[in-house]
Amino acid sequence: MKQYFIVSYQHSEYVYCTNVAHAETAADVEKAYSKYAWKNVRPAMPWDLDSYRAKGCPFVEIDHTEEPETEAAEQVKTEAAQAATATEDTTETKTERKEVKTMKKYNLSRLMKKAWSLFRRAAKKTAITFSEALKKAWRWIKVQDANAAKVEAAAKVLGVEEVFHSWAGWQTLGRQVIHTEEAAFKVEVDDPTTKKGTRVKSFFTYSQTQPTPAQ
Prior knowledge:
Elements: E1 3-12, E2 15-23, H1 26-32, E3 39-43, H2 48-54, E4 59-61, H3 71-91, H4 94-100, H5 108-123, H6 130-142, H7 144-158, E5 164-166, H8 167-172, E6 175-177, E7 185-190, E8 198-205, E9 209-211
Helix pairs in contact: 5-6
């Protein structure tokens, strides 16, 4: 019995697209989109279909086949590529396409990690396409240098001489903040992924942390 899947894929170097595939299995969808170097397939949630239909995402019919490559599968892939090309101009303006070329100046691994985090977090509340999550992550990553400079300036004004990191930053270094400790200082940083556009970030010094216990 057929079911719906949400498939996101890299159509070209800087363009990511999302389709709704109607197929029997995720494997059939993977096979139909096999020509794309990067792709992600997940089952559609009950609220996904109306949301993606409203966004104008293509709905693609995929037939089950036992053969590794059939004429039908080739046709589906061709239709998917054509659908992506047809929606390219509606999902990205000329200005956005020009801007996205500068992504190569940044850490693409960090960008993609943030995009996936936003995509998965939003999927629990409301449906967004991976392309939308990528754009949010792009806006977020562009303000990180300015945020870092703002934090360094605040630490200097407050006379903080010890090494400091955020709560999550210390965790990545194998240390945890002592629960009774108050933040050494706080800074309001830009965060385009929030409704307000900013958020308050807390920082702790080395002496406020301890080694993370072994699991």
